[in-house]
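Researcher: Next entry in the queue.
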Amino acid sequence: MSVVFSAAAHNQSDIDYLQLAQKAPDILRRQVETYPAYPIPFVTAAETSELWATYEKLIYSCLRIGDDKSAHLCLERLIKRFGASNERVMGLRGLYQEAVAEDDAAFKAIYAEYGRILTDDPTNMPVMKRRIALLQSLGMQSEAIEALVELLQISPTDAEAWTELSALYLAQAMYSQASFCLEEVLLVYPNAWNVHARLGEVHFISSFSPGDANETSIEKALTEAIRRYCRSIELCNGYLRGCYGLKISTDRFLETCYQDNKSIARVVKDNGSSTRLALGVVKKLNNKATEELRNIVDRKAVKDEKFNSYEESEIISTKALLDHGSEAKKT
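Model: Structure for this entry, 331 residues:
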């Protein structure tokens, strides 16, 4: 059974994890195992916060690639330095135990241990988050949602928790709840372009909801999706995910909301005020998104260094979308 890692806190690619984990033996060899309580200047090695942060990253990276031995050595050094009762260390210890657990019985034992810890200290955030991650690993999605709601009552500005709760609601097709959670994230990080794009995705997906498939609701969902994608691109020029989302949402808008060749779409009610989304504007946005995506694909093809951050899978998906649009125009 796979262990749920914290994507928000450790947003690294598999290559990043592998490269860091490969350095683990050398880092462990070069660093001393313990530091004296009262270090002597110029004699003992200096202790830095970066070192302990490196150990924590190594635990995630080594567990990700299956190097349990190096991960355990890093954990032991953190325990020696900060103590086993340190909240952050307790969370890392739980992560290690989850990673090496071999069956459901072991996972249930870890879950029970989390319960005992939280009984003694209900505000232990690292353990609360590990418990939620474990619930997801065990497929207990409803319980994970309840636990996240409980966590957010204690820490209402925890953007990571709001993001995770949004993902769980989205998996349950609870679109209004999922969008509400992401809006809470934007209260904390108003300029997070990736969150604006994610919110656009939620609204775009909700436009396919069979339970609310009248024309007005579809148009409203797509209008909000377009607005969110535009905001993400405004905050991060050339943002691939935002451009991709703007392309597919405007495509769907033009397919479903263009009626009787009118130049103005139907009136959409938004916060009590009437707004009109001009179809001409939607077409311009669609063309702009297509141009941006084409530029990204072309620049990536000539190996422009500024576009090296895009993964090959993203470029392949973008090419497929552009090719599909070109074929649709021909027909």
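Model: The beta strands are 268-270, 273-275.
Researcher: Noted, moving on.
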